[in-house]
Amino acid sequence: MYKYCLECEWQASTDSGYSESEVSKEAIEHFVETGHTVDSLRLPPPVIIEN
């Protein structure tokens, strides 16, 4: 999961070692502190396992 600010250079990602819930919490905190809009991408795409 990758979350980023549409108004500044802020970003957080599970690639940085954070869990998805930690990334979400960081995004909420960024929004509350700045009022900036945060968007997200799911990286990498979910893997579909077929039997």
Features of the shown structure:
single chain, about 50 residues, alpha+beta, 1 helix, 3 strands, DUF1059 domain-containing protein
Describe the overall structure.
This is DUF1059 domain-containing protein. It comes from Haloterrigena alkaliphila. β1 and β2 form a beta hairpin. This protein has one domain (2-41). It is elongated, with a radius of gyration of 13 Å. The chain has one helix at residues 20-34; strands at residues 2-5, 11-13, 38-41. The model has no long low-confidence stretch (mean pLDDT 89). A three-stranded antiparallel beta sheet has the order 2-1-3, with helices on one face. Helix content is 29%, strand content 22%. With 51 residues, the protein is of the alpha+beta class.
